[in-house]
Design a protein that fits this description.
27 helices; 5-stranded antiparallel beta sheet; 5 domains; single chain; about 625 residues; 6-stranded mixed beta sheet; DNA primase DNAg catalytic core, N-terminal domain; alpha+beta; Dna Topoisomerase Vi A Subunit, Chain: A, domain 2; DNA Primase, Chain A
Length: about 625
């Protein structure tokens, strides 16, 4: 049995993989200064970016949720992979062949097909389906595309394909390429009944890809009347790769445009995504076989870099029918999760982007998006349209239903604006304060009907440790940032530093790990320096602060003057503490009763004072 992967190969993966490129497949990163990058954390909801990446040190850290680590840790956390699955995936990305130790009888790879094999199954399947689309059996599929204005170039751009009606065509092809039946089933392209068979047969296919462009699943449309499965669309089932609530069709093509324009257009189907992109609206995406939900919102926010400083817009396209109105209402309920402004683009005759493009051309699709209206106005308008506003009771009933909807909005400034909108839409005789009063009553009724659950969690324990960002520890923090980020620059200037120079226990713990690893000199030529220190940490607080300090920008460029200045400042503070301690003992010592001790301490004080003056002179000389 194969053994563990060699440590030097794992180190080579860490060194060669660019952490900013890997994380950039999941998060839009912007320059934060000092060589660091910043974006919205993919692990928790936030409206101000606190997720930092330091490409030079190959580390990341979120100052909001305190998660952090190297590129391996990130992929493990974001995709739920094991350590070895992650190493194998990253090694394949950069072309490193992993070698295993012989004879230890261990194999730490996860059970079942590795993730990368499933990615390969989907890639080969997509290529196979794309080839079949050009064959004689796919005439109906090509006709479907042509009727909707999609030529061969469009089909190739989106990687479309056709699944032969033969129930084992793909399975045979995969076996010929060296894949097992278990791998094909685990990837979701083959199912098992009385025997194994191709899941998608006689259908037109769209490959569904992750943000990095890897095919992770398929959407398949019925094109033959005698198809045994009545469902118009059939998607890949839930697999290790494909989780429908966490994927968006077209995200691989739209993510770059989203980051540049701070805009996302959410449409309802695969052909709508195609129509938008071909018409020049290259920020369009769609959910896959499920309604747009909270996980989709989180994906969009990451790629929009959706926060207060870079506020963008999210535009939903809905049909004008009842289903579209319900979808808009659901979108409004999740509106508060966006910092970006939310809009709705609805074609007056109810045409979706694909049908609109067929009838009126590309310009009409662009115009549809440009003529969007605020989501709240569309939703409130739908509610109000159900009532007879010529009647006083109709206006009151409309106001009450709108108020129930607005009562769920947490942002009070928006509540006032929505109340003003309701007042305007219902008529000038209905004062805004009346609407606000009804909103407050609706909120109170809602709270009374749904009381807050009894708190069962243990009460938070107040930490006995002082805040790591307390100004008292600023010199300790900056020194350790230099130690972690620029061990070569700080090098031997740290020779006089000891653990007692750090007064905060967590910072002292970091330095103890540095000393145990051989000091800063040992990290000068070690690309895995920070990862090695973090792996050695047994205290979670120390582990967390290592990743934080590895990505936090320095106060200025770390030239020799800056480095030595902070080292000497740290030592000078230690000398000041020792001086204060000796002075305190001197004051408590009677020179007549204990002349020897008193004279010894006096000499110690004089030496410390001289040491402190020397350090201050060196600091002044470096200014």
């Amino acid at each position: 049995m194969a053994g563990r992967v060699r440590e030097e190969d794992i180190a080579a993966v860490r060194e060669k993989v660019r952490i900013d490129e890997v994380i950039g497949d999941y998060v839009t990163l912007r320059n934060a200064g000092g060589g660091s990058l910043k974006g919205l954390c993919p692990f928790h909801d936030e409206k101000t970016p606190s997720f930092n990446v330091n490409p030079q040190r190959q580390f990341w850290h979120c100052f909001g949720c305190q998660k952090g680590g190297d590129v391996i840790t990130f992929v493990m956390d974001i995709d739920g992979l094991s350590f070895m699955e992650t190493v194998e995936r990253l090694a394949d990305k950069v072309g490193i062949e992993l070698r295993r130790e012989d004879g230890d009888g261990r194999d730490d790879r996860p059970k079942g097909p590795p993730r990368q094999r499933l990615v390969e199954v989907n890639r080969v399947a997509q290529e196979f389906y794309a080839e079949q689309l050009a064959g004689p059996a796919a005439v109906e599929g090509r006709r479907f595309l042509q009727e909707r204005g999609f030529d061969q170039a469009a089909a190739e751009h989106f990687g479309m394909g056709f699944a032969p009606r033969d129930g084992e065509a793909l399975l045979k092809h995969l076996r010929g390429r060296g894949f097992s039946q278990d791998e094909a089933v685990a990837a979701g392209v083959v199912a098992v009944g009385r025997s194994a068979y191709d899941r998608f047969r006689g259908r037109l296919l769209w490959p569904i890809r992750d943000p990095g462009g890897a095919t992770i699943g398929f959407g398949a449309r019925r094109i033959f009347d005698d198809d045994r499965i009545d469902a118009k669309y059939l998607n890949t089932p839930e697999t290790t790769l494909y989780k429908k609530s966490q994927v968006l069709y077209g995200i691989d093509l739209a993510r770059t445009s989203m980051a540049k324009t701070s805009q996302a257009v959410v449409v309802e189907g695969y052909t709508d995504v195609m129509a938008c992109h071909l018409a020049g609206v290259t920020t369009a995406v769609a959910s896959c076989g499920t309604a747009f939900g909270d996980d989709h919102t989180r994906i969009l926010r990451r790629f929009l870099d959706d926060h207060d400083e870079f506020r963008g817009e999210v535009i939903f396209t809905f049909d004008g029918d009842a289903a579209g109105q319900n979808a808009a209402l659901k979108a409004f309920e999740g509106d508060q999760k966006f910092v970006s402004q939310t809009y709705v683009a609805v074609q007056p005759e109810g045409l979706d982007p694909c049908d609109l493009r067929i009838r009126d051309g590309d310009a009409a699709v662009r115009d549809l998006v440009a003529r969007r209206q605020p989501l709240y106005r569309f939703v409130l308008g739908n509610i109000i349209s159900k009532y007879d506003l010529d009647r006083a009771d109709g206006r009151i009933d409309a106001m009450r239903e709108c108020a129930r909807l607005v009562a769920s909005v947490r942002d009070q400034s928006k509540v006032v604006a929505f109340a003003q909108e309701i007042s305007r839409m219902l008529g000038a005789d209905l004062d805004t304060n009346v609407v606000l009063g009804e909103v407050r009553r609706a909120a109170k009724r809602s709270t009374g009907a749904q009381p807050a659950p009894v708190e069962t969690a243990r009460p938070a324990v107040r930490s006995a440790l002082p805040d790591l960002r307390d100004p008292r520890f600023s010199i300790e923090r900056e020194t350790l940032k230099l130690v972690l980020q620029h061990p070569m620059a700080i090098g031997r200037t740290t020779a006089d530093i000891g653990a007692n120079d750090f007064t905060h226990p967590t910072y002292r713990g970091v330095w103890e790990l540095v000393a145990a690893a051989g000091g800063t000199v040992a990290g000068a030529d070690d690309p895995a320096w920070v990862a090695r220190l973090r792996d050695a940490a047994t205290d979670p607080a120390v582990s967390s602060v290592i990743s934080a300090l590895a990505v936090e920008p320095l106060m200025r460029t770390p030239d020799a003057t800056y480095v030595s200045r902070y080292v000497f400042k740290l030592l000078e503070l230690t000398a000041a503490r020792h001086i204060a301690d000796v002075k305190s003992r001197l004051q408590r010592t009677n020179p007549v009763e204990h002349p020897t001790d008193y004279n010894r301490m006096f000499g110690e004080l004089a030496a410390l004072e001289q040491h402190r003056r020397t350090l201050r002179d060196r600091i002044s000389g470096d200014q």
